[in-house]
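Notes from the 1:1 (GR / supervisor)

We went over the backlog. Supervisor wanted to see one worked example end to end before approving the batch request, so GR pasted a single chain during the call. The sequence is below; no edits were made to it. Supervisor asked that the structure be written out right there so they could see what the output format looks like.
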Amino acid sequence: MTVPIYIPARWAASRAPGKLLRSWRGEPVLLRVARMAERSGVGPVTVLAGDERILEAARGWGLGTVAIFGPASNGSERIAAAIAQELSVSGCRSIGF
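Structure output shown during the call:
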């Protein structure tokens, strides 16, 4: 059984905007986190973002992406929106999102 791994990623962090694309130990923070998630072997890794800079970078690294635009107060809301979006694409009906 595989379980999808969703990484909510924001550009507009209040203390350090764009930090996920900044280099840390020789590679961008987001790429480093995604590679660790991939190595876990749990399931496919997907980056959730509402900013094209993050989405383009993730696609360039070969990661799955879901564009989440609109209001989201936190990462959990972004994950819920991605699940609802995937359910609607697959023809399933979402309940409670």
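Supervisor's comment: Residues 92-97 have pLDDT under 50 and may be disordered.
Batch request approved.
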